[in-house]
Amino acid sequence: MKTNFPLRVSPVRKALxxxxxxxxxxxxxxxxxxxxSNTVFxxxxxxxxxxxxxxxxxxxxxxxxxxxxxxxxxxxxxAGAGLxxxxxxxGQVQYRGAFGSRVSTKINNQSFHxxxxxxxxxxxxxxxPTLIDSITVHRGASAVEFGPSLIGGVNTNLxxxxxxxxxxxxxQYDLTAIGRSADDSYAVGGIVGITNDRFKISALFSQxxxxxxxxxxxxxxxxxxxxxxxxLTAGYQTDLSELSxxxxxxxxxxxxxxxxxxxxxxxxxxFFTTNYRRELGETTLKLALGYSDIYHExxxxxxxxxxxxxxxxxxTHAAAETHSAGLALEFPLNSANLDVGVDFxxxxxxxxxxxxxxxxxxxxxxxxxxxxxxxxYADLASNVLSxxxxxxxxxxxxESSAGNASTGPAVPxxxxxxxxxxxxxxxxxxxxxxxxxxxxxxxxxxxTYRVSLASKxxxxxxxxxxxxxxxxxxxxxADGNNYxxxxxxxxxxxxxLEVGFDYESNRGWIKPTAYYQQIDDYIQGTPVSSHPRxxxxxxxxxxxxxxxxxxLRFTNVDAKIYGIDADYGYYLSSHWRLQGVVSVVRGERRxxxxxxxxxxxxxxxxxxxxxxxxxxxxxxxxxIADQDRVSDTNSEIGTDGxxxxxxxxxxRFNPKMILGAGIENVFDKEYENxxxxxxxxRNSDVGLGARLPGVGRNVHVRFHxxxx
Length: 708
Hints:
Blueprint: H1 11-24, E1 42-46, H2 72-75, E2 81-84, E3 92-95, E4 105-107, E5 132-138, E6 154-158, E7 170-180, E8 185-195, E9 199-210, E10 213-215, E11 218-220, E12 225-237, E13 241-252, E14 263-280, E15 283-299, E16 315-333, E17 336-355, E18 358-384, E19 387-401, H3 413-423, E20 429-444, E21 447-458, H4 462-466, E22 483-484, E23 492-505, E24 508-527, H5 536-545, E25 552-571, E26 576-589, E27 603-611, E28 615-624, E29 642-654, E30 657-664, E31 698-706
Parallel strand pairs: 4-6, 22-25
Antiparallel strand pairs: 1-5, 2-3, 5-6, 7-8, 7-31, 8-9, 9-12, 10-11, 12-13, 13-14, 14-15, 15-16, 16-17, 17-18, 18-19, 19-20, 20-21, 21-23, 23-24, 24-25, 25-26, 26-27, 27-28, 28-29, 29-30, 30-31
């Protein structure tokens, strides 16, 4: 784990990239080995490819709003989901009231830790829209093989090429270009390569750039962005096996984050994956190895109005290095199918706050954090009395530790004393968590009935445990509060029930789900002043100097999340249909009378779609309700409801070429997205401390060209 941030020299990275490139000579191209099953417990968002029947669980971006360069906005359109908008490239997915690490999010089935403590680079940051092939969202509790999470699960598959027939190498490509008026942005990217029946090799690339987003009364300052991706993938297959190797380089240049105290100065990231699959008679063996190396710099003075005193200038350097591995076996067991596996994740993180004008000011506020997890799982699937079922269980062993905090001589005495107290504490932690998931479904005529029961756990994040210095770093909460961690914080446990049905016929479809989650030891910020006062007064004094006299501490409370959501559609004729989604979610504390923070308001959407064989058009209305069920603990402010009107059209010129266009927020409505943060940019068209407005009228064009 490197700590010499300014030099940014990584022998590990150099060796890894050289090894990867050498390996391409022997195994040119491959695909992720993840099982992409479109089951009744999954929604699939297909971002490129051939249009499927409109009743399938697929959302095609040529008919979708591209109001943001953040791919998390695509997920936000499905029933039960929302977008935590913390910046143009920093969005988190909220699903049924849960967000952050409570919703496990992967890229190409790879789990990794983000680079910064405020999640400026959440997992979807590494999925540019021009490179996405599909996004799978697990309804309710995800299967145990997906790994630990409280609710749902999101896996984004980047573009891939197919093996072809015959030994002759054939070229393939899949290219996308996007333009948006709201931020004068562009994005171009895709994949090009050659394939045959045994070998593949391809190159992945993307380039994006945009200025500040506009709204009805001006610009939303510090919403500019810039991001680039380069990658190589290679693979080889036989009749019984398949091997793939992939390496990607992601670079994010200056990108604004108005709800945070700092903006992205740069994010430099390398990803490496190897996947192997082998058929052993009736048994399938799967092996996956992953590595990520993320370096992140943030600044509060380069891209926004600088603090009035140079003593307040700050730059933060953060890094996260993650190793992951998984081994799984799938085989028949009598009349059932059994999946068993083991997975491993080992991450090192380090964060240092500096003053770029004063070398004597530095704080190693999250020092040499190490988090390890080893899990084993089993999932049995079969049929009983015409009901299909899946019964899964997993055990995870967790370990974490932190090094010694350090401060420079220019750091105030209060912070130095807090560092001493942290270094004298016991910073090693270990525990086990146990997950059980039971999912059952039965198809009867046009109906598919669904029931799931689950008990799932989430281990605390490193910020929730090891943040000793009160700062605004909060894993993306962006609520204006300062936070500290708790070395004694316990894992969260969610016991959930979900019931629903899918109805599909030649007249239409509806897929409602009702759910309830009782969450014990939910990790929530609570007032520091309510805790035993050992060094509490010192925390409050230091926090006051950092801009918040009422800091919060991550602690365990009791909570519940419940609601109902559905997607629906009705065929008016052979060419006309209505379709949309409904989402209602409630999040509440069970120990006190308060609501959970940042819960999506009620949502209803309806689109009128006209579709021909070569073109389609739709008019969409989205209704968002008032949100006055807000968290007093987090000083959350309610928001008014609003309606938006969007227009979309798509032309398919031939099987290779698609042009899509649209106008989002046609009437340039000014509104506040309740899941957005509060503005921290002075001298902006948005008031300081005001909730960030939604984006104004946006004309977008999307061109897709491929021969896959």
